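Hey everyone, long-time lurker, first post.

I ran two proteins through the pipeline my lab uses and got sequence/structure pairs for each. Pasting them in order. The first:
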Amino acid sequence: MINKDFAGHPYIAHFVSGECTGDCDVAFAGMKKLQDGFEKGVYGALPVHLVTFVVGDEGVVEHYREWMETEAVDPKRWTFVTGPESILREMVRALATMGDRTADPVWEFGLVLVDSKGRCRGFYGTDRWEIDRVFHQAKDLSREPL
C-alpha cells in the first residue's frame, strides 16, 4: 500500500512528469473533480483515495505542490508522492505489465484504479469521459466486501 491510511480502501494512481506541461494540468483538474466527487458527491463520501506520483526535478515538484495548495487539495484524500525518477518509472513499468499499456512517457500512462488489496483493476485516460468512468468504477469498487 502507498499509505497506511489507504489500507482497505481503493485508490486511483496518477503519474506526472516535467515532460507533460499542459496535459498534466488537465489531468490534475480531473483528479480534483474526483476528489470533490468522492468527498461530497451525490453518493455521499466514498472511501476512495487519490495518489499522484511526480517524476522530475525539484522545479516540477514545486509547481505541483503549489497547484495543490492553491486548489485546496485534501491531503487526507489525495496524497502527493515524489521520489527518485528510476523508482517511480519502475512502478509505472510494473503497472503497465498488468494491462495493455505503454509506460513511456510516464505522464501518458493515465490513471490506474487499484483495489483495497493492492490489485490493479483498470486503466483510464484523463479526459472528462474517462474521469467519469473511473469515478463510477471506483464507486462500485468501494462497495465491494474486503
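...and the second, right after it:
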Amino acid sequence: MSEIIHIDSYVPNSDDKFFLDTNIWMYLYCSIGNYDEFVVAKYNEFYEKILNSNAQIFTSALQISEFFNAYCRLEYNIAKRNNPHLHYKKHFRKSQEFKDLISYLKQIIQNRIFKNAIKLDDSFSTIDVGEIIKTGESFDFNDEYFVNMCLQDSILIVSNDRDLITHDSNIKVISNLN
C-alpha cells in the first residue's frame, strides 16, 4: 500500500525529488478549472516550499501530454456549453480558439512547467509493461506508469488523486487527502 504523507507534515529539502501529478499542474496553471480554492492554495504553498528548498521536480512526456489534453478538454467542455453541437475534432480543434489555446499552453509548458521541472527520461524500453497493465476497477494506465517511473528513481509523488493514495505499491505520495 502506498505511503501517504500529509502535505502539512512534509518539509521539502534539497535532496528530495518530486513528481507533481497532473492534477497538481492543473491546480497551479489552469485557472478555468473551477477548483476548490483551499485545495489549490495548499498545493501552491507546497510547490513554493519545493522551489525554495531547491529540490528537484521531474516531469515526463506522458505527463505533459496528459496536462495538455486535460486542459484542452476542459476548454472544449466550456465552449460546448454555449454550442451543444460543437464536436471536438471536427469543430473545436479547427477553431481560432483552439489555436490560441495551443499558443497559451505552449507558454505555460515552456515558461512555467519546464522552468522548474526536469524532463525525465522514462526508460520505457526497460519497463515491464506487465507491471503497469493491471486489471481492476480503478485502473489508470498513466497512474500506473507514473508510479512505476517514480519507484525506479525514488521520486515522491505529489497528488490529490485517491487512486494514487490507495495504490498497492510502496510509493510515497504527498497529499492533502486523508
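Reply from user beta_strand_b:
Welcome! Quick read of the second one: The chain has a mean pLDDT of 92. The helical segments are 22-29, 37-53, 61-82, 96-116, 129-132, 141-152, 162-165.
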